[in-house]
Amino acid sequence: MSAQRKDDHVRLAIEQHQAHSGRNQFDDVSFVHHALAGIDRPDVSLGTDFAGLSWQVPIYINAMTGGSAKTGAINRDLATAARETGVPIASGSMNAYLKDPSCAGTFRVLREENPDGFVMANINATTSVDNARRAIDLLEADALQIHINTAQETPMPEGDRSFSSWGPQIEKIAAAAGVPVIVKEVGNGLSRQTVLTLRELGVRAADVSGRGGTDFARIENGRRELADYAFLHGWGQSTPACLLDAQDAGLPVLASGGVRHPLDVARALALGARAVGASAGFLRTLLDGGVPALVAQIITWLDQLAALQTMLGARTPADLTRCDLLVHGELRSFCADRGIDTRRLAQRSGSAAVLHEMTGSTR
Ligand code: FNR
């Protein structure tokens, strides 16, 4: 059952990516172009720091799979691509392994293929502390992701219907894990209130994983005989909306959900994300063109992100948070209703900072 579900998720996520990967709310964010704000490419670094972690690049392969023979082979290829490019990588949910240790190899391959890489284990919010440790130990994980996914569980025929224990359990795991705990959504987004609560629970970072890419309400509805939860398709907040909502919430935020290309990465970093993850897009590249295609895509993304930073005068990903941003369309309405000041975003570089860039002085 569980192995079949994992294979279904891969197939349905790819079909969805083929059908629905067009416009999303990242298109409602644009940079104000300052034509003399450029710096030199050798000045640019892609390094990012958060939660006591230091990553050389701000792009990661986000949680996907494991638990069946097919998905074990996918994990092997994802891990190889992570090793070849140096990007951090997350496992898919390891609850399959916790229930049935015979599928350990389909997850463990993430570490075996990538012994020196940054690897994140992944569990759900009902996992016991002991099992959280087992998941971390299997991967010798550098961090632990806990996914929260009420809009996936609800239409899932065999899904969880009891959510009250999730917060207290996250708190227990965060206190005992021994590695930084990152709580993530799976494509429906984290609100400001949720991020503030996660901070109180002792979580070290939150991955907003918002609407705009993979839609698990749609995937689970597609697995229902009557597909009678179609009204949940597109539930939640977009990734840029979540980033705007969580500004200054006091917890480092990561971005995933509908990240399509390096400009989306730059937009997410400019909206405050410390790093940016992609899942279905990378998976599709892998399944279409194998490991060489995924390696080439990740190298291109890193190269083009550095090029964008150069053009935008951002020596580091964090410097992008000083670039002026314009917010349009539906995202602008979201900001108005949530009390988010878009004028401040559009003017935040300040004339002094831009003048410094123009005259070549360092920030
Ligand atoms: C996922 N995602 C996911 N997340 C998680 O925390 N545990 C999991 O087991 C899975 N499984 C999974 C399978 C597949 C096939 C996909 C495509 C995705 C969710 C993923 O990490 C991410 O949050 C969303 O997919 C949004 O990002 P994209 O796909 O829009 O880049």
Automatic annotation (TrEMBL):
Residues binding substrate: R5, K6, Q152
Cofactor(s) of this protein: FMN; NADPH; Mg(2+)
GO biological-process terms attached to the record: isoprenoid biosynthetic process
Coiled coil: none
EC top class, as a word: isomerase
InterPro entries: Aldolase_TIM (IPR013785), FMN-dep_DH (IPR000262), IPdP_isomerase (IPR011179)
Domain annotation FMN-dependent dehydrogenase: ranges: 164-322
SUPFAM superfamilies: FMN-linked oxidoreductases
One GO CC term on file: cytoplasm
Pfam families reported for this sequence: FMN_dh
GO molecular function: FMN binding; isopentenyl-diphosphate delta-isomerase activity; magnesium ion binding; NADPH binding; oxidoreductase activity
Residue numbers binding Mg(2+): E153
Entry keyword set: Cytoplasm, Flavoprotein, FMN, Isomerase, Isoprene biosynthesis, Magnesium, Metal-binding, NADP
Catalytic activity as recorded in UniProt: isopentenyl diphosphate = dimethylallyl diphosphate
Keyword Flavoprotein applies: yes
Listed EC numbers: 5.3.3.2
Binding site for FMN: A63, M64, T65, S93, N122, K184, S209, T214, G258, V259, R260, S279, A280
Broad class of where this protein is predominantly found: cytoplasm
Compartments where located: Cytoplasm
Family of this protein: Belongs to the IPP isomerase type 2 family.
HAMAP family: Idi_2 (MF_00354)
Purpose: Involved in the biosynthesis of isoprenoids. Catalyzes the 1,3-allylic rearrangement of the homoallylic substrate isopentenyl (IPP) to its allylic isomer, dimethylallyl diphosphate (DMAPP).
Subunit structure: Homooctamer. Dimer of tetramers.
Protein name: Isopentenyl-diphosphate delta-isomerase
Organism: Streptomyces canus
Upper lineage: Bacteria, Bacillati, Actinomycetota, Actinomycetes, Kitasatosporales
Name of encoding gene: fni
